[in-house]
Structure formats: C-alpha cells, structure tokens
Amino acid sequence: MTIERVRRETREAVAGNGLLDRRAFLKSGAALAAAVSGYTLTESATAEPLANDPWSQVAGGIAPAYEQRSRFEAATMRTQNNPKGEPRPQNLRTPHHLLNGTITPNSLHFVVAMGGVPDIDPDRHRLVIHGLVKRPLAFTLDTLARYPMVSRVTFLECGGNSAPLFSNAPIQANVQALHGLVSCSEWTGVRLSTLLEETGIDPKAKWLIAEGADGPSVSRSVPMTKAMDDAMIALYQNGERLMPSNGYPMRLLLPGWEGNMNVKWLRRLQLTDAPAMTFYEARTYAPILPNGKAYQFFFLQEVKSFITHPSPGLAMKGTGFYEISGLAYSATGRIAKVMVSADGGTSWAQAALQEPVLPKALTRFRLPWNWNGGPAVLQSRAWDEAGNVQPTRAQIIAERGQTKTVPAVTAFPTQHYNGITSWAIDSKGEVRHVYA
Amino acid sequence: MSTHKFSDCAAAVALVCLASVAVADGPGLGKPMTAAELAAWDINILPDGRGLPPGSGTPAQGARIYAEKCVACHGESGKGGPNSALVGGAPLTSMETVKTIANFWPYATTIFDYVRRAMPWQQPKTLTNDEVYALTAYLLALNKLIGENDAVNAETLPRVRMPNRDGFIVRFPDKI
Q: In this complex, is the C-beta atom of B54 within 8 Å of any C-beta atom belonging to chain A?
C-alpha cells in the first residue's frame, strides 16, 4: 500500500467534524504524523536558514547534583490559591495542559494542605497502630525500610476536583483550574496489611482512624476492608521520598479513594468498631443533595475523563491534523474505553488508550483529528472495566443539582463531579469551556 | 513461617512462639506501645463519647477563651470573620447552603475532637481539655443546642441531639 493511499484512507472521518480512526497514526506512520499540527501557546518562529546557536559553540554547563527543569519551562507551574499561607487551606493545581504522558512530576503534584505543610524530622516521626489490635506498635521510618515493599501507579484526586462544573454557567478557566486537583504517581511503600498482621487485629475492628502529624492533625475514618485490600504506607513518590506537601515522610495511600482520606504526614492509625465522624467526613466532604440530605462516606473517585489537548489557552493554529488527547481514570479498575466527540456528543469515535492501562491510574487517550477550521465542541467520555460509565453533565446535575449563581473558580460549591467536560473551538481556533 | 512446632513450645515460651508466628511475613520491628506512652496522641473521639477525657466547661468559661483565642478569625459571637461563621445556618436547600454546626454537623462530639486537634489555627493542640470543653459548650449554647448554664463533659456531650443527625446517606455502603 502506498503512503498516499494510507493517508487518503486514514484521513476519512469516523465521526462528525473530522474525527479520524484511532489507528490512523499507526497505519500511516511518519507520513501522517509529520502533518500533525501542534497546539500553540505562542507564535512559532518564522523559518530562517539554520545556524549554529551560541550553545553549540561553547562547552556546556555543569549538571547539578539535583536538577531543575530548563529555565525555559518556568511557566509550567502549579497555581497557588493561598500563597501567603493565610489561615485557610492551601490548594495547588497540576497544569495538565502543559504536561503529557500519565505520571505527574513530583513538584507539580496537586496539593490540598488543610493547615499548611509541616517540617517533619524523619528521625523523630513515628507511625503508631493501636486500638482494636492485639499489640499496639510504633514504627520508625528506619524500621519500615526493612519491610517488604511494593510499588503501584495510582491516581490521587481531591474530592473537590472539577467542582467548578457544578456552576450554573460555564466558568471560563483552563483545565488546570477546572481539573487540576488530580495527579498520578508511582508510589512505593509497605502494605498496610503487612503491618496489621504484626499488630494483630481484634475481630471487632471495622474501621481505622488515620491521623496526620500536621498542625490540624487531619483525621479520617477508613473501612478495614479497604485497609486490608490495597492500602499502602507510601514512603516514595516516583522513586524519591515523598514531597513535603504530599506527606513526607509517609502518607496513607488508598488507591482510587477520595484524596483527603489518603492522610498525609501519617502518624497514627487507631482501629475501632465505628467511624469517628471527623470534621472532614461529617462536615466537609459530605455533599448536600437537592432534597436537603447529604451524602456521607463517598469514598470513590468515580470514572471520569477530560481533554487536555486542546483545552482553553491551548489554541489551534491553522486547519489540518491535530492529536486530541486527555486523561481518564476510575476508582473501580482499569479504563476500558474512551469515546471522543467533536460535535458536542452527536457522534463519537473511540480513542486509543496509551499502554500500559493500569487499574486506578491515569490513562492517556489519544485520537487524531482533522480540524476543518469550523466550530467544534470536543467532549470525552470514559468507561471502566467494572462497567461504569462517566455521566453527562446533564445526568449528574439532575441528581446532584447545580449552583444558583456562578461561584469563584477556586470555590468548592460541592464535591465529586465526574461528568463530561466540553470545549468549544471557534473559527479562530480559540478554545472555550461550554456546557453542551 | 516460623520453624517452631507448636508441640515444641513449653507453656513458659508459648507467648514467644505465638509472637513469632504473628510477624512471620515481616521483620517484626514494631516497638510495643503502652497506653501511657500513647496518651498525648490518643485524641480520637467517637460519636458515642468514647475517648472523651476527664474535664468540664461551661458556655461562660468558653466565651472568655473565645474572646482571647478565636474571635479574630470567627468574629464576635461566632458570627464569622475571615473564617467560618459558627452560629446560625439556613435550612439545607441547596449545595450552596453554608454548612454550620446547627444546620449540618451530625454529632456534637466532632466539635470537641476538631477543636482539640486543630484549633486555634496558629497553636493547635495547646488548649487544655477543660478549655476545649468550655469552647464546645460556648458553641453549642450560641447555637441554642444546650442551655446557657449547661456544663459540657464526657457524660453530657454525647447526649446533645444535633438537629441534622439523620440527614445523611452513605454513598457507597457496600464499601463499609
């Protein structure tokens, strides 16, 4: 088959507004890939004859012992809602529109710090397990280093991520502001079940109350079934020790479960027969429903996806081929399928999933798109292997309600939005957040 | 697993044998903790009052502590300032209804637990148990959930009936 013929065939749309077969790049290889346009934050340099730049004509610099990214990447930053550390929570959001792949760099992992970031001396830190156990025990960081360890890639998401989509009108903000409270890392540490085997478990234990060593000693009640399933005392994040704002020297990791329950700076686990009804479970992470009742013990970060490329601020530059890509994830297993629409949900094409597709981990989806320069509305919708499907916004609003006035983009009118996000492309290639 | 056979264990060393079995999957390096060693960290309060320490406080005592340590953030008489209001609260009609102690919190014990571990913001875990009881009493009285002269202690606090006690639906009961 000639390259030209492959190009012609693979450029045939499989869904409205120019969505192409997800295998189009694989079939045609470099020929089509070379035609793909990039999303632009700034104008590209005009074509000039190549020259040897100054850095090619001198000896290079010294590689530092602990390296920072290029100075040209300084704009790839988390946003801080509370940079002066005023007496309220600090929320820092991951810039998904400036990243790719599925692993979040440690310095860009999202943060919710209820009472600031403690400066913990690891030699003095202790993890105590007590309550309904046979032997209350304390562990140091050094002793935990001698236990069998496991690694797993898993996403962490704040229960309040995507809360701006509960607004009654679409808030114009980028994907970082709307969906930046989710990140994904390879976490390494000791299975909690390993430590609980050592303490022994009283059969009456149904919950454990996890508590941090931070100022407010954030505490949450966790069912023992989760503790014994896949909970981990995480000591390493992407191969290095946890970042201070992500729980150094250790945090509770509950793959797929509400971020706040993954207690950072973990110092204590008390096994009990009942939940403690802590501030954060009895009050903060208990979303009010339209009938005046409130959900409690939401636990799961349900199946969800959003498109990162393009997205508001990442404008299209000219008609032609682009790769639509984004992130999908679910607390209930692997992502099974992501469908993408370019016509506001009228027709859909199946996106390619970047391998490896891991359970409870961010999964990158990709789909080639031939943008004809006309208006388009991009959406993604995810399914997980348990058969759960991401709801439309209309579905989630029908159950959960929406605000009566437009809140601040940094506000949390409620939690646990996992509905569809829609990006509208206008004829200039600008991207806006819309409800469709 | 341990290489000991149960039959090898004389009564005098049975405990040692059991311990070695229990930690067979790990190096067994946890340090045993006594209740006395744990005391300063053992601060969880359950809704039925388990965990509440000795001590007591009244709304009047709490008002004095509040004026000194809480008013800057939470305003006069808990009406709100840079941080949340601690009194009042509209009926729960939408997601935008501000959640307060009176309209939302299901258990009064959560007030004691949270104030003791997390407040005041700049000096958490510095209040005495009597001070925490007094502040809890003050907040409950401001919200007319107890009388103005009612003392709060380990006996009385779990008995305070919160208006929204039955206002919750467990989202995923199969996960418990």
A: no
Chain A window 136-155: which residues touch B at a Cβ cutoff of 8 Å?
136-140, 143, 146-148
Check if the beta carbon of residue A190 is closer than 8 Å to that of residue A124: no
pLDDT in tens, chain B (176 residues): 333 443 443 443 444 444 444 445 679 999 999 999 999 999 999 999 999 999 999 999 999 999 999 999 999 999 999 998 999 989 999 999 999 999 999 999 999 999 999 999 999 999 999 999 999 999 999 999 999 999 999 999 999 999 999 999 999 999 99
Pairing relationship of beta strands A127-131 and A266-272 according to DSSP bridges: parallel
| Omega cis (within 30) before A310 | yes
Chain A, chain B: beta-carbon pairs less than 8 Å apart: 190
The CATH number of the domain covering residues in B41-173: 1.10.760.10
The ranges assigned to domains in chain A are: 127-170+182-284
Q: Render A91-152 in DSSP notation, one character per residue.
A: EEE--GGG--SSPPPGGGS-EEEBTB-----TTT--EEEEESBSS-EEE-HHHHTTS--EEE
> Can you spell out the DSSP letters for B107-139?
-THHHHHHHHHH-STTSTT-S-HHHHHHHHHHH
The partner residue sitting opposite A138, judged by closest CB among B31, B48, B172, is B31
Fold exhibited by the domain A127-170+182-284: Sulfite Oxidase; Chain A, domain 2 (3.90.420)
Question: Which residue in this structure is represented by tokens 């156990």?
Answer: A133
Q: What torsion do the CA atoms of A302, A167, A160, A245 make, to the nearest 10 degrees?
A: 130
Nearest to A146 by CA among A197, A187, A189, A185: A189
DSSP A64: P
Please say whether the beta carbons of A264 and A246 come within 8 A: yes
For tokens 């209740």, the residue is B35
Interior CA angle at B110 toward B106 and B114, to 5°?
A: 145
State the best of A299, A301, A302 to mutate against chain B, taking most chain B CBs within 10 Å.
A299
> Can you give the pTM of this predicted structure?
0.92
| A194 in contact with B, Cβ within 8 Å | yes
Neighbours of A56 (CB within 10 A): 8
Q: Which of B42, B26, B139, B66 is nearest to A199 (CA)?
A: B26
Tell me how long chain B is: 176
Write out the two tokens for B165. Answer: 């006690």
Q: Where are the domains of chain B?
A: 6-30, 41-173
